[in-house]
Description:
- Belongs to the glycosyl hydrolase 3 family.
- One of its GO terms (molecular function) is beta-glucosidase activity.
- By secondary structure, the protein is an alpha/beta fold.
- The chain is built from 19 helices and 26 strands.
- Strand 2, helix 4 and strand 3 form a beta-alpha-beta unit.
- Helix 7 runs parallel beside helix 9 and helix 15 packs across helix 19.
- The longest helix is centred in the N-terminal third of the chain and has 39 residues.
- The N terminus is likely disordered.
- Bound molecules: beta-D-glucopyranose.
- Beta-D-glucopyranose binds next to loops.
Amino acid sequence: MKNYILFFVIVVFLSCSEETKQVSEEKQTYEKAINELLSKMTLEEKIGQTNLRGTSSRSKILPEELKEAVRKGNVGAFLNVMNLDYVDELQKIAVEESPNGIPLIFGRDVIHGFKTIFPIPIGLAATWDAQIAKSSSEIAAFEASAAGIRWTFAPMLDIARDSRWGRIAESPGEDPYLATVLGRAYIEGFQGEDLSNPTSLAACAKHFIGYGAAIGGRDYNTVNISEPLLRNVYLPPFKSAIDAGVATVMSSFNEINGIPASGNKFLLKQVLRNELGFNGFVVSDWNSTTEMIAHGFARDEKHAGELSAAAGMDMEMTSTAYENHLKDLIKEGKVTEEQLDEFVKNILRVKFKLGLFKNPYRNKEHTGNFYAEKHLQEAKNAAIKSTVLLKNNSVLPISQNIKVAIIGPLANAPHEQLGTWSFDGEKEHTNTPLMAFKKANTKYVFSKGLDYSRDKSTDGFKEAIKTARNSDVILFFGGEEAILSGEAHSRANIDLPGAQEQLIKELAKTGKPIVLIIMAGRPISISNIIDDIDAVLMAWHPGTMGGEALHEIMYGIQEPGGRLPVSWPKTAGQLPFFYNHKNTGRPADSVKFVPIDKIPIGSWQSSLGNESHYLDVGYKPQYPFGYGLTYTNFKYENIQISKDTINFEDELSVKISLKNTGKRDGKDITQLYVQDAVGSITRPVKELKRFMPVFLKSGETKEVEFRISSKDLEFVNYEMIKAAEEGNFNVWIGPHSASGLKKSFYLKK
Length: 749
Ligand code: BGC
């Protein structure tokens, strides 16, 4: 027996080392090939590799000038070439006619699907499900690669704590741990096991870094982040992407602490390359190199090129500072040719990994199976799992026998429900809620009430109210059109736009129960109407299959599976808002809090209440991070920890008993949070460290166990040392960030 085990160990060892040997040989081969190629390239060709040329996907002609640039080796990559003939022709010129036959990479923003559109990324984040993130990006890669695309500008890994920011729609939400789990899954999905597989895409972790911390939630705005905050909150998702082998990273538009990210040596060289060990290439965001002029950091285009080069930016997106000036900058000794060689090597390495030297052309046999049944079912599943039930006065699920009034501007808006960054998804393939109700032969009456989300006209109210009267329950599909979130689409007011609130108030007068289904790119402030509605379901922009997904949720064929990946504010005035904030010296609590209407008239000037809150909206969100109801109920009981004191090598087991106390089977997403009570720098009041989906039959009880160690308690302090510190910790297991059963333990050196 012993011999047998020894044999087994040796075989495993040999096969592992065989694998490692193979990988390192492969690496050596392409590193050798890269060096050989580099030695043959002229300065102009090297500069050409750093050039990412943008085109318009609607372009009807392929300009001669562009072909000539490729022929001369002056372009390294393209974005948005969506005409298949142009893709083929440009690649043929690059491979057959350019001096060294270096293939091009074709890039595109394939963010949440290519043709089959999945929920917007914040919706995917609401699934808390890495498998969904992975399969959605796998399908997106499969479809997009049929169009010759081998590089996507995704995933976006910006932590977003402000719902005014339009790009919160594309973000993984406010929590670094959740973003880390999802980031890894996206990379695995896009890139697959082997990047040289022609149906995989090189991923791009963006936007490095701090873009989501734009002051006031105004897109592109200035960012001030202390280094510990940067390292503890904004960096972890990027680290996880790099550990997962992400091929490229995009630098962000914003400045951070006074230095634009696209010219930031510290971030791009020290942090990204030296510390995180990134060995793919860095691409600027659209014109972000030359935008350093408007930032007041670069004097002119040439200076911008010099600054980006000094920072270690490998490829320039659309602006032409490198193209126009790198040669002179090298001549003048302001940039060295060795630096440029590094950029080119980084770019060629990704081209080798993508297998483009062996297999540069689009595989014409690969159709992408756009909207294949399997893709649609995955998209539907993702939409179901992304919806978050926020309120339910027992109105949902509805029974088959009652008559439904479908009302609202998003009940049948195929284009809008696809959300931001859905260039390639066709509205003709979109399944809306109205279509799904029609197809299922359900008893419904329909009246839009408003033509589109911003519609201020009350002309349709009368008809909508009549429709509502003629029903047993109102399903109001409201929210925001797709164009109201995403890049450059920040809002100062995050209420339902147009006359939606007014219409809901009118409908409430009918006395019929109202279910508000929100399709939007951000949490929407509903505090003005919360008492007029009986249930609220957040569907984000649910994508191609949103209609069927929502129909099944309404009737309880499926349950809403999502949890909030961001705190849901009562009003924009509370923003930025995030659960993992720090305490103040006067933390807010319900005992001291004095609401505005309770302040005596003619009060003496005093710091009444004495704590950190708003007089008018208090200190709590409408719904906390991690929150989401289901069609059943769960009871958390009997939290236990394996030890009261652990040392740095120990693992701590934390468990609870979870019971499904409702009448339906259902899924809980059980969450574990930790608080480091005292730190060498102050620590957040709570931080998510683990979560787990738990399926329970009605009446069933399960023990749910998590294991954590001192690694999970580490943070970066002002000396930039990452370590866990001895002391007291609190740990909670619960259904969301504002609830849970608590225990304490001590971490001892
Ligand atoms: C966005 C990026 C995007 C790029 C290319 C920029 O405006 O910030 O996220 O990848 O355009 O379309």
